[in-house]
Amino acid sequence: PSRALRHFIGATEPILNYPARLGCTPAIVLFGGFAWLELIDLAPDDPARLAHFVLAYFIVAMAGMVLFGEKAWLSHGDPFTIFLRLLAHLSPIDPRRISNDPARRQIFLVWPGARLFQLKALSLSGTAFLLMTLSSVSFDGLSRTFDWLEWIGINPLEFPGRSAVLTSNSLGLFGLWLAIVAAYFSSILLGCLISGSWRLTNAAGTLVISIIPIALAYHFAHYLTSLILELQYVVEIYGDPLAQGWNPLDLPANFVSASLLNNYAAVAVIWTLQAGAVVLGHIVAVAAAHLLNARLAGSGTRAALAQVPLAVLMVLYTLFGLWLLAAPNIG
After folding, report:
1. CA separation for the pair 133, 218 (Å, rounded)
2. What is the C-alpha separation between 305 and 309, in angstroms, rounded?
3. What would you report as the CA-atom Rg of the chain, rounded to the nearest whole angstrom?
4. I want to staple 203 with a disulfide (CB 3.0 to 4.6 A). Which of 32, 148, 198, 305 is the partner?
5. Exposed/middle/buried for 20, CB within 10 Å: 0-12, 13-18, 19+?
6. CA atoms of 200 and 121, how far apart (whole Å)
């Protein structure tokens, strides 16, 4: 569609060159807006309101691709393309070009996460963007805990609604992102001082690749219960796509039910999957960070010790994630 629109206005090539200094800043702004809409807005699932936001996003995406070209915008400006491309490097499927025929590819099966090492160091803005994808889902869990509500002066047993926490949660959402960015860069800076040979920008952009498994693990853990419930709606909708009362799948009248989430045995399994995902994601991340260190300073005692600050940060974040899963909340 963007190419058709550019052809319609008489432009055969992108109208502007994408400003390199912007980096992934548009993606940060758009993802921050998406996170705010989902987590903070007063009525994020209101159909009319949601339709306006989706239309606005569509216009911005189309304008970006028409002005700067599809490749430039999707690589720097579109948050979902960037995030999903990063997650794709955890896939065990590895398509590789054939050397004597670049138009063809061969499919290889590899260890999940092996493709992380194909990624080049992310830019500073790319690093900040990836940390935002992690912090937003972490704040969603934090904002539901009794501890957070008590800290901002809300009685968790008499939750007054989203309007009462609009300002505090807005500050908390972006405050947690800034705190995680500060903690990450502090650990990398300390690693630079220990190693004596790391360069801050290169080290930060390289080692943040190891955060990708953690981001996937947190999204899986956080949205697992929603997935279980929403998949039932998907099955129901496909059974009657035009809402005409059809039932070719012979579904019972009360097919969609949240009772599964209230069953003790099911909840135990779900919590185990969530906790297991968080722990496994951090284990993969620590291993990846150790291997990525070889890009920075080779080997040796100082190079090994330089990894300790980031490893400590990952352990602390693991504990934080497990606490979010176990803490009493209003959800």
Report:
1. 10
2. 8
3. 22
4. 198
5. exposed
6. 12
Per-residue tokens: 249: 């799948």
Tokens 């999903």 belong to residue: 84
Instruction: Label residues 223-250 b or e (16+ Cβ within 10 Å = b).
Output: eebeeeeeeeeeeeeeeeeeeeeeeeee
| Dihedral over Cα of 69, 71, 74, 76: its sign | negative
What does the alpha-carbon distance between residue 132 and residue 177 come to, in Å, rounded to a whole number?
A: 6
Nearest in space to 135 (alpha carbons), one of 188, 208, 68: 208
Between β-strands 101-109 and 93-98, what pairing exists: parallel, antiparallel or unpaired? antiparallel
Burial category of 122 from C-beta neighbours within 10 Å (exposed 0-12, middle 13-18, buried 19 and up): buried
The tens digit of pLDDT for each residue in 56-109 reads: 999 999 999 999 999 999 999 999 999 999 999 999 998 887 777 777 888 899
Residue 291 token pair: 């291997």
pTM, entire model: 0.88
277-313 b/e with 16+ CB inside 10 Å = b? bbeebbebbbebbeebbeebbeeeeebeebbebbbeb
Burial class from Cβ neighbours inside 10 Å (0-12, 13-18, 19+) for residue 146 reads: middle
CA distance linking residue 121 with residue 298, whole number of Å? 16
**In the Cβ-directed half-sphere of 292, how many Cα atoms lie within 13 Å?**
31
Three-state secondary structure call for residue 107: strand
Residue 133 has a pLDDT of 95
Instruction: Tell me the C-alpha distance between 141 and 328, whole Å.
Output: 11
- The per-residue DSSP string of 3-57 comes to HHHHHHTT-SS-SS---GGGTTHHHHHHHHHHHHHHHTSS-TT-HHHHHHHHHHH
CA neighbor of 196 nearest in space, from 310, 314, 311, 301: 301
